Amino acid sequence: MFTRNDKHAACTGKASHEWPIWVAVCLAGMALIAGCASTLTAPPDSPTKQKGKTTQVDPTLSPQVSDARLQRVQKRLDKFCKANDIPGATFGMVLADGSSMAPASGVSDRTAGRVMKPTDRMLSGSIGKTYVSAVMLQLVEEGRVDLSSKISHWFGKDAWFPRLPNAYELTLRMLMTHTSGIPRHIFTPEFQAAVKDQPQKVWQSEELVAFVLDAEPLFPPGQGWSYADTNYILVGMIIERVTGRTFYEELADRILGPLELVDTSPSDHPCLRGLINGYSVEGNPFSIPPEVAPNKCYAINPQVEWTGGGLISTASDLARWAWLLYGGDVLKDKTLGQLLDGVVIGNDPQRKYGLGVMIRSSRRGPVCGHAGWMPGYVSLMAYYSDHRIALAVQVNTEVGVGLPQLESLLDTAANELLR
Fold first, then answer.
1. What distances in angstroms separate CA 39 from CA 101, 259, 284, 395, one per listed residue?
2. How close are the terminal C-alpha atoms of the chain, in Å?
3. Distance between CA 216 and CA 163 in Å, rounded?
4. CA 42, CA 383: separation in Å to the nearest integer?
């Protein structure tokens, strides 16, 4: 594994540069009730031994954390919420020494006027793919899986497998880099109709894959790039077949427990601890009402995401996770290099996607991380490897905000922290 002194290597090498635009967003005018809160934590005594463990401290007693920096970021976050008419946002920051800051802005519920807290939890969408990738790559390290293996090794005897686009030519690596040519099941009319008709259904993984069976592949295997949650549903199925355990059991034992990511847990049922209300657009693809969780229960069963996402978290936990994963505390040097060995997205050589990681450049050097969306929530986490800092933001709406704005917010916050 990397030591903390090697963290700068994490986003360099074969990986590089810009993030793709991953979701279209709609603009709508909504009133904002302002409010803010923040917490500070001291660094772990030994980051490599006490992964993710922090101690709540009075900011006046913490020499590792500058209160002035927190105030600057807080002002930027408040300005961001007001300028984009966002109900509320939480923000997580982990600095090079392991200390952290967690401002929040706006409200978690417009009707109640409830002030957003740093500990408020939201669905983190496709950021869940980073955890799926980490679990799979630990299996690679254990010699139980080979990224170059054809997926027919695990699925060849399943009756549905010959109907999967590009079935017999696909490798595990192609699934994880989205170069399989498999279409995205969540945007098929059949899937959207099924979610509308059975919003509380508990889905089996094979049922999700079934929505793309017999579909035309988007391109020959390994000869293009197209983001598809379906790829990671298949990756999750492989994890379970290799280990004989559920993915969430593996995640808890390998990642969430050891790293003490106590505010991150499976979104495997509608009523989730600490879930705040979110605000979506009218006529969203899944027919979810504009207020997605007014009673602390999500309008549909979020279990439908599974290993395409499948987690609820806080911005603080997401920042800590990025700091640990890309900083070398989760995977060995060689394996982390494989994680970051990205493929070019589209026609832009500056945009790449690795094994469940998006990589871009910024004024502060290379950045790696991931974005996530569920109706009512948008999340983004990023690790600035040259400076060994990790940032994350969650907002409780996708109305009027998307990846470009969130990326700009993180870059601006990084500049404030590094002034």
1. 6, 20, 34, 18
2. 30
3. 10
4. 19
Residue 199, token pair as written in the block: 């919003």
Q: Which helix (H) or strand (E) holds 51?
A: none
pLDDT at 46: 34
Q: Domain segments of the chain: what residues?
A: 124-271+301-311+339-354
Question: Which of 19-23, 90-94, 207-211, 260-264 has the weakest average pLDDT?
Answer: 19-23
Query: Count of alpha carbons within 13 Å of 285, Cβ hemisphere only?
Result: 15
Q: Give the integer Cα–Cα distance in Å for 43 and 206.
A: 43
Nearest residue to 288 (alpha-carbon basis) of 376, 371, 207? 376
Going by DSSP bridges, is the β-strand pair 365-374/377-384 parallel, antiparallel, or unpaired? antiparallel
Q: At what angle do helices 315-326 and 128-141 cross, to 10 degrees?
A: 30
β-bridge partners, 397: 279
Encoded tokens for 117: 């807290």
Contact 144, 242 (CB under 8 A): yes
Q: Are 382 and 368 a contacting pair, CB within 8 Å? A: yes
Instruction: List all residues 6 or more positions away from 95 whose beta carbon is below 8 Å from its beta carbon.
Output: 43, 64, 65, 101, 388, 389, 417
Percent of the chain with pLDDT over 70: 84
What pLDDT digit, counting tens, does each position of 103-143 carry? 999 999 999 999 999 999 999 999 999 999 999 999 999 99
CA distance 187 to 197: 15
Q: Around 124, how many Cα atoms within 13 Å sit in the side-chain half-sphere?
A: 32
Q: Is CATH 3.40.710.10 the classification given to domain 124-271+301-311+339-354?
A: yes
CA angle centred on 108, ends 252 and 22, rounded to 5°: 65
Q: How far apart are CA 140 and CA 143, in angstroms?
A: 5
Give the CA distances from residue 263 to residues 93, 333, 380, in Å, rounded to whole numbers and listed in that order.
15, 27, 16
Starting at the edge strand found earlier in the chain, the sheet holding 265-266 runs 122-123, 311-313, 265-266
Contact 277, 293 (CB under 8 A): yes
CA distance 131 to 128: 5
Location of structure tokens 């170069």? 179
SS3 402: coil
- Asked if omega into 17 is within 30° of 0 (cis), the reply is yes
Average pLDDT, the chain: 87
Q: Does the pLDDT at position 296 exceed 70?
A: yes
Strands, DSSP E only, in 214-322?
265-266, 311-313
Q: Is residue 155 within 8 Å of residue 149, measured between CB atoms?
A: no
